[in-house]
Amino acid sequence: MEPKIGIVICGFQNNRQFVTNSYIQSIRYSKGLPLLLPLVRSDRLLAEYIQLCDGFLFCGGGDITPLLFGQEPRNGIGQTDITLDLFQIRLMKKILKTKKPLFAICRGMQVFNVACGGTICQDTALKSGTVFNHMQHSDLRSDVSHRITTRSGSRLKHCIGSSLYVNSFHHQIIETVGQGLTACAHAPDKTIEAVELSEHPFAIGVQWHPECMYRTSPQMRELFGEFIFRAAS
Predict the structure, then answer these.
(1) Helical spans, DSSP H, in 2-118
(2) At what angle do helices 82-96 and 43-52 cross, to 10 degrees?
(3) What biological-process GO terms show up in the record (predicted)?
(4) What is the mean pLDDT of each run of 10 residues along the chain (233 residues)?
């Protein structure tokens, strides 16, 4: 039986909760059963989500409300939705207690970090030193933007190798890494590109968008495949 993967909603559009199709297809092509998890405010229903699903995918989306990681809003902050933020962080914390596989992408990685007590730099322009443009402008979202290097001994390196070119669609970056997390990939400008929870069977967050590279990159297919394999175990 295919493992049931709960795909947490990306956000709202015109009073509609949505998930971008590429996340759904990447789970399906990896032999998982995609189930969409809408925003709810009930702890009982969150518990049912967790009981129902074998693994969880947190997707990309908008910015996180800075108050939730102990900061005031600064220049460069984008649109936020504190109701969505609170829902995703609450669900993330509950999932992490179960040891069920977790894969977090772009905003999802930042939610992962905040749920573990980390902080976010609200815009790369606020970062000291030289940080290149992480919001690429290309014809296709599958096009690559920059190189990343993975940490020796990390689960991520086991999946995708020591170095890889990835796409990039974000203007916020991890500032302080959350408790228990390890930065397991970096861009050439030292930006954290991935984190993983060391004492967890599979809890990985990546800053790029592997779902957009699924058809073109064997490494991205391997990453999704490992996630589904762990969920099926």
Answers:
(1) 21-29, 43-52, 82-96, 107-115
(2) 50
(3) polyamine catabolic process
(4) 96 92 98 98 96 98 97 94 97 96 98 98 86 92 96 95 96 96 97 94 97 97 98 95
Q: How far apart are CA 147 and CA 142, in angstroms?
A: 14
- Render the burial of 39-54: b for 16+ CB within 10 Å, e for the rest: beeeeeebeebbeebb
Task: Select the CATH number that applies to the domain covering 4-232 from these four: 3.30.420.40, 3.30.565.10, 3.90.226.10, 3.40.50.880.
Answer: 3.40.50.880
* Rounded (10°) angle between helices 107-115 and 82-96: 70
pTM beyond 0.90, yes or no: yes
* Distance (Å, whole) CA 173 – CA 121: 5
